[in-house]
Amino acid sequence: MVRFITRRVLVGVATIIAISIIVFGLFFAVPSSPAKVMCGKNCDPASIAAVETRLGLREPIVEQYTSFMKGVFVGRTYAPGTAFERQCDAPCLGYSFRNDEPVTAILKRTVPVTISIVVGAAILWLLIGVSLGMISALRRGTLFDKIAIGISLTGASMQVFFFGLILLYGLVYATGWLDFPSYTPFTENPLKWAQGLILPWVTLGFLNSAIYARLSRAQMLETLSEDYVRTARAKGLPLGRVYTKHALRAAITPIVTIAGLDIGASLGGTFITETIFGLRGLGKETVEAVNFLNLPIVVATVLLAAVFIVVANLIVDLLYAVIDPRVRLS
Amino acid sequence: MRFKGGALVVGALAVALAAAGCSETTNDGDNGGSQEAKTQSGSISYEAADNTGPAKAVEGATKGGTLTVMQNSDFEHLDPARNYVNVQQLTANLIYRSLNGYVEDGSGKMLLVGDLATNPGTDVNKDCKVWEFKLRDGLKYEDGSAISTKDVAWGIARSFAPELNEGPHYIQQWLYPGGAYNASYKGPYEGGQMPAGIETPDDKTIKFTFAAPHCDMPYAAALPTSAPVPQAKDTKGQYDLKPFSSGPYKVKSYTRDNLLELERNPNWDANTDPIRTAYPDVYKFSFGLEQQQIAERLVADAAADQASITWGDTPPAVLPRTTGAGVAERVAKGPTQYVWYLGINNQRIKDKKIREALYYGLDRDAALKAIGGTSAGTPASTLMSPTTAGFEAYDAYNAPATGDVNKVKEILGGTTPPPLVLAHSNTPLRTAQAEAIRASLVKAGFQVTLKAIEATSYYDEVGRKNTPFDLYLHGWGSDWPTGSTIIPPLYDSREIVDEGNQNLAYFAEPSIDAEIDRIKTLSAAEQDAAWMALDKKIMTEFLPEIPAYYDATHELFGSKVGNVFLSDAFGAIQLNKIYVKP
Amino acid sequence: MTAPASAPNSPTTTDKDPYLRVNDLRVQFPTEDGVVKAVDGVSFSVERGKTLGIVGESGSGKSVTSLTIMGLHNTKRARISGEILVGGRNVVGMTEEQTRRLRGRDMAMIFQDPLSALHPYYKVGAQIAEAYKVHHPNASKAEAKKRAVDMLGRVGIPQPARRADSYPHEFSGGMRQRAMIAMALVNDPDLLIADEPTTALDVTVQAQILDLLEDLQREFNSAIIMITHDLGVVAQVADEVLVMYGGRAVEFGTVEQVMRRPQHPYTWGLLASVPSLHGDSDADLVPIKGNPPSLINLPTGCAFHPRCRYAGRNGDRSFTEVPELHQVLERGHLVACHLSEADRTKFYAEDIAPSAGVAQ
């Protein structure tokens, strides 16, 4: 098990390093210079040159990359020896090209928003989706099953922006029943936090519930037809015990995997949801940074997204090993 | 000033969002039926009545309340040395005061007056080379300390620093003419040197000495770089986050990309300020909302949003819902200081007849429809925007907005025009527009090829003197509402350099250059009419390029906001006389 | 011993009644395409200590029969009629809870593929203990565990205490089937149904498992139903043989009778498709031509007639009349065929005997 974890962690670190190199490389393959975006209206060649020097874009790419990595682990000093000298402590991810804000501050602000959206929505979709799917599978062919399938088909074929906008029109613009979503930190006021996020939760939660309901139903049905479920019944186990102990545990395994990866990927940014509800999370920040060629933010957010996915993968692998003994050996 | 590069990029993002129910957020507006352009008058005032505080009260206005400005994205800079975007300037105008400023009341009558200064500046030798400003009595910062001209000098000095180079550099360039403004002097941080040509004999006086006449100095002194920055309060790169207040409001909190909150500066004295009424207690700027959401919320006018405005243009998807009762009266719309031109490369198309034929061939309606219809702008016939001081509408050619194919044929007289290449920025919006322009010109008998250029390098490509393109759309807006920041940069042949040109017509006419020189020596008050006359002369005699349309804006506000009008100086809702209804 | 309902019980058995008696069992599944008649009027019985082999191709109804006995069909989706008496109690019509109490205690089942039949996530010992505990609610965990280890030892798993803590995937195929058998026998069931218990195993392991079953049968005195398509297995372990085709019984008799003197052309076909150790090694195996019939649209008359080369030897009875089981030649040997006894004897002698090896 220790070897298993060590190996996965090493692979994860290697993946993240590879991604950081790719992001840097891709960014420099883009023909336009961020300095042109940053220099505002004074875009004469001299100003661009000044901005490029200031942003460190004139250094060779390898040097830029190594100073970035150095900043992450030991911190770095910007504009040393000038009036604008700035010490950026580790983990230093640099400063936004656009407004000089430390990238770590941007992450500190945006990550909790995305985490709040995703965690809330994930709880909804796992609770509703999985139980709906499981019950559907156990009551296969009944009216309950048919209604559940209908709802989940509708949900699965709907898009976040469509459903989200309908909710916005119905509950905010037209009726004023709810306030427009906003983010209040949980630590500040948990009630306001929940109130401000209810719409994105419902939107993401409902749509993903649909997907998870279908997935859970299919998984449960497949598991119910497994030989070992028949064995359990043949042993004389009561149905409840057959379903919960024997079928559910096996049926839930792939759902854990997919949920883990979904949540991991979502933490990297739920751009559409964030955009529709005007919440400034990681996704919105990333897309905006890409549009403004804001390299430090792009690198940081993409890397963070990669870390989330790698960590989610690791957790899923570990959970998998806990759930399925067959994985432990391989 | 050129249309901000970033805006083009944002456009690309916004269009990508269109599929998500959101829409293009830049540069759309509807100036509906208000085709008649406003005429500016009396641009600079030395009248004591205009230059003395307090500002004229707004009828029915009440003090107090919180005004919210809902914006798509955060400001880039509030630091006066780096502040070159209209909405940032409107905001900063509440926090810090420049030497001069504009008194506006929404009627189109805009006055340049002294802000910190007692009047818009004294032309000491009547040659526009030496300018003196005297500060008012009783000016205080947010900490109660007195405002000194030394701080104004420091503010200008620091604007030379390469690290703070984003702001306007007129005064800077005039102090250090020839070459880049900061080629020799790079600000006070290295060595503590102050720029040459600025004297502060006492705390109340500041004197600028230029090598050449600059009769525009009163306007240049209205730009943010003349705002006072006390050396002790200069946080350099961090100044953006909390400029030291010399105005009626100070920064209470600023969470980047989320919220900027301004509260009253108790040390501001209304009696020293002829410009600001400072009615609301609090200004909140909330960032990060999509323009579509902002527009929907303002249309819905829910209780929480009734004391809100936005500076963003209403997206086309929401426009139809802004015409009904209850909403229509909550729209501020009109032209901005920007004009969009179909640039013609005069180095390649030397024959005025062909340029005239192009003028008649261009379907302005189609070009506007491609970017949002009449909400995006109105057809133009002058080089300067209707917001320019001294503006007078004229139409030298009387071409219909949809073009006149017969007239094109008549002008060409059976000759075949040369094949033309039309370059355009590769954003979806500009591409669609270029296609519409091409279609109309082809219909008129021209042979036109499109050439897409990556958005961020568009102006580099067309701004290269040897650019291989014949036609290209470009926009220009003045930094202050007079012709002096429009005609000279765009049509003075001596401005043509190898790269980074703004005279994109590559128009070279010695008689016009001479006229520009002559007008520059006129007093600021006399210049307005002269620039307008030159505008008409260039159009009538040379037609170097085609004014295509005047950019328009269309901004929504809530039902509890009073005295909302578009600033002629900034092309967006003015904040300094706005109030919140109880 | 065993006999179809029509046959009288053998007086030689130790118990008065056979432990399992199936009377005119019919199992139907309504589907969108029509009603699947999976089992159509089958009757048989098995005594303690005896083994009935049920033989047939897939789809012949043999597995459905065994699952029905176990009560493992969803009564909402299967229409079941007839009578299944397990130790005198009729399983047909019982509630799920009632059959559940019988399952694993009075009757147990061994499945074909022990890898998929054992739960991959639970330890082997725990799965066996669970089977014990469910019917011995008063037993402690430790007792159940001890019982599981004992059973593992009984079925010949070395170091049973250690192996009990292994997962199924850590076992070899033969070990898994031993574990499966241990699980089935943990409650000393009176009836054990083994559904193709050796099909998924190596030949050498097959023999060991069959030996084990025989040993355990002697020890526990269980009645065993051995379901298989492998006549070799039947020959080795069964006392009596039921041949099923298209959901019906087509031949029944002792192993000796059915294997040595098969009377039904389908049985001939089955035998002909088994490689013989004694017959001519050059002789080709003769697979039964054609495919098993659709259980939704069974052929009229004798369901086997489309594949029977003797169909029509008796006028059109083969095509119109469903043959009933009736006794031929010897007592207890039943066959459902329209051929006359003389014809059968003749055809068997001429066509089948020379080429077909008969398993010992």
TrEMBL record, chain A:
Keyword line: Cell membrane, Membrane, Transmembrane, Transmembrane helix, Transport
Compartments reported by the entry = Cell membrane
Record-level GO BP terms: transmembrane transport
| Pfam family, any one | BPD_transp_1_N
Q: Which ranges does the record mark as transmembrane?
A: 9-30, 113-135, 147-173, 193-213, 251-272, 292-323
Q: Which residues form the ABC transmembrane type-1 domain?
A: 111-320
Q: Name one GO cellular component term.
A: plasma membrane
**InterPro entries in the record:** BPD_transp_1_N, MetI-like, MetI-like_sf
> Record's PROSITE patterns?
ABC_TM1
Which topology term describes how it sits in the membrane?
Multi-pass membrane protein
Q: Which family does it belong to?
A: Belongs to the binding-protein-dependent transport system permease family.
- Database matches in PANTHER family: INNER MEMBRANE ABC TRANSPORTER (PTHR30465), OLIGOPEPTIDE TRANSPORT SYSTEM PERMEASE PROTEIN APPB (PTHR30465:SF0)
Q: What is this protein called?
A: Peptide/nickel transport system permease protein
Q: Which organism is it from?
A: Asanoa hainanensis
From TrEMBL, chain B:
InterPro entries for the chain: Peptide/Ni-bd, SBP_5, SBP_5_dom
Question: What Pfam families does this protein's entry cite?
Answer: SBP_bac_5
Comp. bias intervals (Polar residues): 24-44
- Keyword vocabulary terms for this entry: Signal
Q: What residue spans carry the region label Disordered? A: 24-56
Q: Which GO terms describe its biological process?
A: peptide transport
**PANTHER family listed in its UniProt record:** ABC TRANSPORTER SUBSTRATE-BINDING PROTEIN, PERIPLASMIC BINDING COMPONENT OF ABC TRANSPORTER
Q: Where is the signal peptide?
A: 1-20
Which superkingdom, per the lineage?
Answer: Bacteria
Pull one GO CC term from this UniProt entry: periplasmic space
Per its record, how is this protein called by name? Peptide/nickel transport system substrate-binding protein
Residues forming the Solute-binding protein family domain are 113-494
> What are the recorded GO MF terms, alphabetically?
peptide transmembrane transporter activity
Which species is this record about? Asanoa hainanensis
From TrEMBL, chain C:
Return the CDD domains for the record.
ABC_NikE_OppD_transporters
Look up the record and give one Gene Ontology term from the biological process aspect.
Answer: peptide transport
Q: Where in the cell is it found?
A: Cell membrane
Q: Keywords in UniProt for this one?
A: ATP-binding, Cell membrane, Membrane, Nucleotide-binding, Transport
Q: What is its main location?
A: membrane
Domain of life assignment = Bacteria
Q: Where is the ABC transporter domain?
A: 20-271
Gene Ontology molecular function terms on file? ATP binding; ATP hydrolysis activity
InterPro entries assigned to the protein according to its UniProt record, in alphabetical order: AAA+_ATPase (IPR003593), ABC_Ni/Peptide_Import (IPR050388), ABC_transporter-like_ATP-bd (IPR003439), ABC_transporter-like_CS (IPR017871), Oligopep_ABC_C (IPR013563), P-loop_NTPase (IPR027417)
Gene Ontology CC terms, in alphabetical order: plasma membrane
Kindly list the residue ranges recorded as spanning the membrane.
none
Matching PROSITE patterns: ABC_TRANSPORTER_1, ABC_TRANSPORTER_2
As for membrane topology, the entry says: Peripheral membrane protein
The family note in this entry says: Belongs to the ABC transporter superfamily.
Enumerate the PANTHER family for this protein: DIPEPTIDE TRANSPORT ATP-BINDING PROTEIN DPPD (PTHR43297:SF2), OLIGOPEPTIDE TRANSPORT ATP-BINDING PROTEIN APPD (PTHR43297)
The cross-references to NCBIfam families, in alphabetical order and at most eight, read: oligo_HPY (TIGR01727)
Official protein name in the record: Peptide/nickel transport system ATP-binding protein
Specify the species: Asanoa hainanensis
